[in-house]
Design goal:
- The complex is a heterodimer of chains A (189) and B (764).
- Chain A has 189 residues and is of the alpha+beta class.
- Chain A has one domain (5-180): Alpha-Beta Plaits (2-Layer Sandwich).
- Chain A has helices at 19-28, 66-70, 96-100, 133-137, 154-161; strands spanning 5-10, 38-46, 49-57, 76-78, 84-86, 107-108, 115-116, 143-147, 177-180.
- Chain A contains 5 helices and 9 strands, in the order E-H-E-E-H-E-E-H-E-E-H-E-H-E.
- Chain A has a 3-stranded mixed beta sheet.
- Chain B is α/β, with parallel strands linked by helices.
- Chain B folds into 4 domains: 105-177 and 385-565, Rossmann fold, CATH 3.40.50.740; 189-357 and 605-623, Dimethylsulfoxide Reductase, domain 2 (3-Layer(aba) Sandwich); 369-381 and 567-603, no CATH class; 643-763, Barwin-like endoglucanases (Beta Barrel), CATH 2.40.40.
- Chain B contains 25 helices and 28 strands.
- Chain B has a 7-stranded mixed beta sheet. A 6-stranded mixed beta sheet of chain B has the order 24-26-25-28-23-27. A 4-stranded parallel beta sheet of chain B has the order 12-11-10-14.
- Chain B is globular, with a radius of gyration of 26 Å.
- Chain B starts with a strand and ends with a strand.
- The chains are: A alpha+beta (189), B alpha/beta (764).
- At the A-B interface, helix 1, strand 2, strand 3, strand 6 and helix 4 of A face strand 1, helix 1, strand 4, helix 6 and helix 24 of B.
- Strand 2 of chain A pairs antiparallel with strand 1 of chain B, so a sheet runs across the interface.
- Chain A: This is Polysulfide reductase chain B.
- Chain A: InterPro entries: 4Fe4S_Fe-S-bd (IPR017896), 4Fe4S_Fe_S_CS (IPR017900), ET_IronSulfur_Cluster-Binding (IPR050954).
- Chain A: Residues 5-34, 48-81, 82-111 form the 4Fe-4S ferredoxin-type domain.
- Chain A: One of its GO terms (molecular function) is metal ion binding.
């Protein structure tokens, strides 16, 4: 059976420490001052009624992929397990994908000159049975990754016990990155 | 009104999209999908422990083609698993930083002028030895100061100082954990640990484990905070990350936490809601506490802390209901003001009243090999020893008079008081100080009133600084010796026992860049030149380790391979039945040590003068009348100034050390001062404005960051910025150094550096 990958970011466990971001830079040789992944910390409210949300900002691995759809050369593609990748041999840096991505997850890598983004560490880790670098290092276990078809997996258990929210779900892109929304603090929804 | 901020304001979160405009459209380069540089095979993996901060978490370093390529947690340590923080994951960014020091240098210009001659290690050692001999001939060995942050480096430099004959050894402790070190001595006769995982209630006084990260503790607290079974209540003037994860957050006025704790104690004693049996059996001085807290009502505290009386009443009752599975957390470097000692003592005593000692979800003593072997009546874990144990501390008068009657009577000769150094140098009292040798410390950023410290340094004849970077302090040196970082050196065994015995060992990951030397090599080279080398019983680190392990090669092999070793000993809490039963089941020979009620409570030993937990300390009362028991104390920090400037840790940097490290600087390069919108309006300042923070100690520039996440009477900066060394090219000139505003006055009894102080705002 094909793998159905999910990454779950539990905003309640996340402390915004950026260990994920550094591990990503280290693993994927992300050029200086650019980021494939960050956790943005947002505080809302009026003192002392506040809340702080931890928002993972990276490629969300859409099922219905605007970036792949617009790519004129086929450089942006989905693996058979549905993880969106960029083939540098085919990328012509036209930036269509960057504009098409509703998650602002892509950028031009000034070293390779290609479109670049989070890959879920597909070729360097996941395809070898390892977790993505960000998941491996997370100090508070806020990130869980795996095959959701596997009922013995951590990600299956996490999905079952949590309320999952998908980023910009209304766009119908069907992301493989899900969030467990923050329960703490004063609500300003 | 609602305001929002994103961490973009202090994280350099160059948005993924923001850079598109700057790049050109070029044809794709040849290369395969995720090219080989990225997924080159790991050639080796080394298990060791981190030194990007003092938490010293166990890590695993992957080496590809001779270079460290990825750092993650050491899976052999259960508390870590593969987790690591941003700083730990950036270790190789420091290791390979081209702004790192890699060559010894001798000053050729004026002190602090940044003019140097690159020399060989041999030449540098000759120079230092010659100067030290001259200074010692004229002023005695005590004229040379030695300092380091605690850790194995500190142990080596302290040993050297003792051999050299100087009593003047300083750790960083007086600027950091000295209060709880001393308060624990006075209360329990030793330090305790916290069992966050099983606590039903945690009352946290600004213990920001989510920004001052120690991975295994942080992980436990994160899960506890997220659990329905645990209630977390946080008091902090600022909406910190830990405050944001709390069930309740109270923005307490800085420096007044003591009043809140005293009101809890008042409620418990008023209503008889405390563990009377525990107090009766294990403690002395409850009657003195009843007397000292008879007026410290919830209502009384309200006007001091700003927290409503009913909150204190309710929290006191909730904690009592959760007891003994509760933690009233004394925090880490919680220094607020002059009331620090009394606050910490009050917190420790509050725990005593809840009877949470050696209970699940409460407090416990570390279970080292020696203790568990004694209980089990057999050797279940190896005991290690100190190869330098025969070298004793010099008992001469220290420049800070530590251990002598007076302000520093409770300060150990090992740790000293850094804040007393400038006056001693400038006044030449009690005797002249002429030299300072230091490693892994940057007092011009981390110690109060750095202006005065700098003036004092100018008077010295010899300053030797061993560091990774050209710090502000290194700039003032006569000799700069580059430090072989923690990834480039082997070290001895460290005891990291928690509820069961465990050890870790630092293992070299790669050879030192440019053959930089370790502090132990540096000190031994100096010892040889000063004819002091025969005092040592070991020659190499391998020697040192073998002696530590008492020849236990199995232990050493395992530590060299895994970096961390535990011995399958079940977690033990002396007063928790299920833990005791588990232990006895595994080691039946332990049964002879059981109490009549089937516990190991008789194993509890309190190394206090009375042998009991001291709610009242005769010794403290004698030396500091009125301080023997937790009691009301001056909680005014502002001292007439309109605002209180506070500081704290970020998950991205450590003290005065990491601000220039590329990976970390990329994420955070500045520390704008947090200002509440009401304050901004009142002062007519806005986001991004340049202002001055000013008091009678100093005047320091700051950039305004307007945020709802702070009290209107309080300001906040992350520590370690405002760097002046021009050799720290990334960090130089950015942000605010709070040290320039801090006074050298110390907190009474514990001699702690006070890190919250009154300031006014003036426009730049």
């Amino acid at each position: 059976m094909k793998k159905k990958y999910r990454m779950i970011h539990d905003e309640n466990l996340c402390i915004g420490c950026q260990a994920c971001s550094v591990a990503c830079r280290s693993e994927n040789k992300v050029p200086d001052d650019l980021f494939r992944l960050q956790v943005r910390v947002k505080t809302e409210g009026v003192f002392p009624d506040l809340r702080m949300d931890m928002k993972r900002h990276s490629c969300v691995m859409c099922e219905d992929t605007p970036c792949v759809t617009v790519c004129p050369t086929g450089a942006s593609f989905k693996t058979e397990d549905g993880l969106v990748q960029v083939d540098p041999k085919l990328c012509v840096s036209c930036k269509y994908c960057i504009v098409a991505c509703p998650y602002e997850a892509r950028f031009i890598n000034p070293v390779t000159k290609n479109a670049d983004k989070c890959t879920f560490c597909y070729s360097n880790r996941v395809s070898k049975g390892q977790d993505p670098a960000c998941v491996t290092v997370c100090p508070t276990d806020a990130l869980v990754f795996g095959d959701i078809n596997d009922t013995t997996s951590e990600v299956y258990k996490k999905a079952k016990e949590s309320t999952l929210v998908y980023p910009k779900a209304h766009l119908g892109t069907k992301p493989k990155l899900a969030f467990v929304p923050n329960k703490k603090g004063v609500s300003y929804e | 009104m609602s305001s929002t901020y994103s961490r973009r304001d202090f994280l350099k979160t160059t948005s993924c999209t923001a850079i598109i405009a700057g790049s050109s459209c070029m044809a794709a380069k040849l290369g395969s999908l995720d090219n080989n540089i990225i997924n080159g095979g790991v050639t080796k993996s080394v298990n060791t422990y981190c030194e990007m901060c003092s938490s010293r978490c166990q890590i695993e370093c992957k080496v590809v083609d001779g270079k460290v390529s990825f750092i993650e947690g050491n899976k052999h340590s259960k508390g870590m698993s593969t987790s690591v923080c941003a700083r730990g994951a950036s270790g190789h960014s420091q290791l390979y930083d081209n702004q790192r020091l890699v060559k010894p240098m001798i000053r050729v210009g004026k002190r602090g002028e940044d003019k140097w001659m690159v020399v060989s290690y041999e030449k540098a050692y000759d120079f230092i030895a010659e100067k030290l001999k001259k200074i010692t001939d004229e002023y005695g060995a005590k004229a040379t100061l030695f300092s380091s942050k605690t850790g194995e480096n500190f142990n080596h430099i302290a040993t050297f100082a003792n051999i050299f004959g100087s009593p003047n050894i300083f750790s960083h402790v007086s600027t950091c954990p000295i209060t709880y070190d001393i308060a624990f001595e006075h209360t329990y006769g030793g330090k305790l640990k916290r069992d966050f995982s099983n606590a039903k209630y945690i009352l946290n006084f600004g213990h920001n484990l989510f920004e001052g990260i120690a991975v295994s503790k942080t992980k436990k607290l994160a899960h506890a905070a997220n659990s329905e079974k645990t209630k977390l209540v946080v008091l902090d003037p600022r909406f910190s990350v830990v405050a944001s994860k709390a069930d309740e957050w109270y923005p307490v006025k800085p420096g007044t936490d003591l009043a809140f704790v005293l009101s809890l104690i008042h409620v418990w004693l008023r209503d008889g809601k405390y563990d009377k049996e525990f107090v009766e059996k294990y403690t002395i001085g409850i009657e003195k506490l009843i007397e000292s807290t008879k007026d410290t009502t919830p209502k009384w505290q309200e006007q001091i802390t700003g927290i409503k009386a009913e909150v204190a009443e309710r929290v006191a009752n909730e904690i009592y209901k959760a007891a003994p599975n509760c933690i009233i957390d004394w925090g880490h470097k919680t220094t607020t003001g002059a009331s620090e000692y009394q606050k910490t003592r009050a917190i420790l005593v509050a725990n005593v009243l809840m009877g949470n000692l050696e209970k699940a979800g409460g407090l416990f003593f570390g279970k080292k090999a020696k203790s568990v072997n004694k209980i089990a009546n057999m050797d279940i874990a190896p005991v290690i020893t100190n190869p330098d144990g025969h070298i004793k501390y010099i008992q001469e008068e220290r420049i800070d008079h530590a251990t002598q009657k007076g302000a520093n009577v409770f300060v150990s000769r090992k740790m000293g008081v850094l804040m007393d150094i400038p006056d001693a140098i400038l006044s030449q009292k009690p005797y002249p100080v002429k030299a300072w040798i230091m490693t892994r410390t940057n007092p011009l950023i981390t110690v109060a009133n750095s202006q005065k410290m700098k003036k004092a340094m100018e008077k010295l004849d010899l300053i030797v600084v061993n560091d990774v970077y050209m710090s502000e302090t290194a700039m003032m040196a006569d000799v700069v010796l580059p430090e072989a970082t923690y990834l480039e050196r082997d070290e001895g065994i460290a005891d990291v026992s928690s509820m069961a015995p465990a050890y870790m060992m630092r293992n070299k990951v790669v050879d030192p860049i440019n053959k930089t030397q370790t502090i132990s090599e540096i000190l031994r080279a100096l010892a040889k030149r000063l004819d002091l080398d025969s005092n040592y019983k070991w020659q190499t680190v391998t020697n040192f380790r073998v002696q530590q392990a008492k020849g236990n090669s199995e232990l050493l092999e395992k530590l060299a391979k895994d970096g961390y070793v535990s011995f399958g000993v079940p977690s033990l809490l002396y007063r928790e039945k299920s833990y005791v039963d588990n232990f006895v089941k595994k080691y039946p020979s332990a049964a002879s040590n059981l109490d009549s009620d089937g516990l190991f409570a008789n194993m509890l030993k309190f190394k206090t003068p009375s042998g009991k937990i001291e709610i009242f300390s005769e010794e403290v009362e004698e030396n500091f009348p009125g301080y023997g028991v937790p009691a009301k104390h001056d909680t005014d920090v502002a001292k007439g100034y309109p605002y209180i400037i506070t500081s704290g840790k970020t998950a991205l940097h450590t003290n005065g050390h990491t601000q220039n490290i590329p990976f970390l600087n990329m994420l955070m390069s500045d520390n704008p001062v947090w200002v509440n919108p009401l304050t901004a309006k009142k002062e007519n300042i806005k986001n991004g404005d340049l202002i001055y923070l000013e008091n009678n100690i100093g005047k320091e520039k700051a950039t305004v960051f307007v945020t709802e996440a702070i009290r209107p009477d309080t300001l906040f900066v992350y520590m370690g910025f405002g760097r002046e060394s021009e050799e720290l090219k990334r960090a130089n000139g950015k942000g605010t150094s709070q040290s320039k505003l801090l006074s050298l006055d110390k907190g009474p009894v514990c001699s702690t550096m006070i890190t919250n102080i009154g300031v006014k705002i003036t426009k730049a």
